[in-house]
Amino acid sequence: MSPMLSAFTVTVMVLAGDLTPLFLSAKPVWPEGRETEMNLFGGFYGSFEAQPEESVTLRLTGSTLYRVFLNGEFLCHGPARACHGYFRVDELDLTPRLQDGANKLAIEVAGYNVNSYYLMDQPAFLQAEVTQGSRVLCGTGVESNALVARIIPERVQKVQRYSFQRPFIEIYRLEQDWDRWRTNGGTDSVACAIQPQYPLLPRRVSHPTYTRRPAMTMGASGTVEAGGEPSQLWKDRSLVNIGPALKGYPEAELEAVPSVELQKFRYAETGTGGTVWAPSSEIALGARHYQIVDLGTNLSGFIGATVTCETAMRLYVTFDEILSNGDVDFKRLGCVNALLFELEPGTYALESFEPYTARYLKFIALDGPCTISNVYLREYVNPDTHSAHFAASDERLNRLFEAGRETFAQNAVDVFMDCPSRERAGWLGDSLFTARTAYDLGGTTAVEQNFYENFLLPEQFEHLPEGMLPMCYPADHHDGVFIPNWAMWFVIQLEEYLARSDDRAMIDALE
């Protein structure tokens, strides 16, 4: 054994594999000098041509999150989460989606750079390349046909956090054809700098399901009045407690504060809804009017709609899992369940960058009218849920089983979560039961292996006592909070994991 390699390091290499050479040429890059800015949204564009006889592969990883478009069409969202200092690599076969001639690749990357229970505070970068055999067709930091970077100013940078547990909300200021850069690259490129090369891990878990689930029915509608003041204004800790222990932009620096503005609206219901949503359905939403739409069941993923407006206007989309007194309460879960789009005249295919959980969407038109169509939620769920089947003569039991399957799929995309909404955190304790379900429904321990690997690889957990495991992970715990008995659940689950997986190497490494 090399004197430079400890037994721990060798174990890690055996378990995770040294995948750094997986990229033939690509290097991690980010707009120069901006890798630690909070909530900076970057775009990377490239064009390539491929030979028809050989498959074409996209490999990528990055910090903090990305979504990928090929020839203007949504491809994927990632990466799967890893522990501090490691990143998982997505590998996708582009061959079925290629067109003749030039193919246009666009990657949007959010560099959040704040601590949370959901995503970690690590400098932003993207490492990506498209290959055909041994040829690199385009990539980041390559010598020939490098992906071109731009800042995406349409996503407002100085906004409030979504919750104590998650980073920022989404506010967009859009003009017609703002997203044309995804297929032509644009002219506003910026210089990039090479970033440190991190050790890389396999994604291992299946790629999520991205099925578009359309709206099912229309709910209540009515008018909106501004200028009211609630008797007690709700201001979450994620708005007022920004500082060293909870990073973000202070309230005084925010360009808009939707959580405050929304509380000052007053609604008067003028229609009860109930109309079945059809593919041709449209909502003609007048200025200062709202419309609630029902997705039919709780879903987790990316909220989307097509919106046309003839004058400049603002459109809020608030959402929740239930109706509260017949309305959508965006703050019910202690988070800001709201998207804000400031639109110049035009037609827009809108879709959230972050995954959210909702059954009910409330569209609120301010300053001008608009027409809304093609309302949907693009699922972001675990696909390995259908190996198990259940049927009973009591239909209530069948519904209960399917509800459980749906709940699991939304909470096990890349790690085991206890909720896919306000936290998206990988909690211990809860994971014991979700891991059992994963094996029952899908016959696989891939998510559980990732879950344990994330706890295994860090040499230490900052801000926690030596030897203590974090209560949820991957996450940052700057405030030093932990739950001691959650580490005991870890041991109980580990015994069951061995029985399910026969993964003795993981057991020995964790010991």
What topology emerges from the helices and strands here?
Blueprint: H1 7-16, E1 29-31, E2 40-48, E3 57-63, E4 65-70, E5 73-78, E6 87-93, E7 103-111, E8 125-132, E9 135-139, E10 148-151, E11 170-174, H2 181-184, E12 192-194, E13 200-202, E14 212-214, E15 217-225, H3 237-240, H4 258-261, E16 266-271, E17 282-285, E18 289-309, E19 313-320, E20 338-343, E21 346-351, E22 356-366, E23 370-379, H5 395-410, H6 430-442, H7 446-456, H8 484-501, H9 504-510
Parallel strand pairs: 6-13, 11-20
Antiparallel strand pairs: 1-12, 2-7, 2-10, 3-6, 3-8, 4-5, 4-7, 8-9, 14-23, 15-16, 15-18, 17-23, 18-21, 18-22, 18-23, 19-20, 19-22
Structural class by SSE content: alpha+beta
- Average residue pLDDT: 94
Total DSSP helices: 9
Shape, per Cα inertia axes? globular
Low-confidence stretches: 1-11
- Radius of gyration computed on alpha carbons: 23 Å
Cα separation of the termini:
21 Å
Give the number of DSSP strands: 23
Percentage of residues in helical conformation = 10-25%
Give the biggest sheet: 11 strands, mixed
* Residue fraction in strands: 25-35%
Model description:
The protein is an alpha+beta fold. The protein is 17% helix and 31% strand. Residues 1-11 have low confidence and may be disordered.
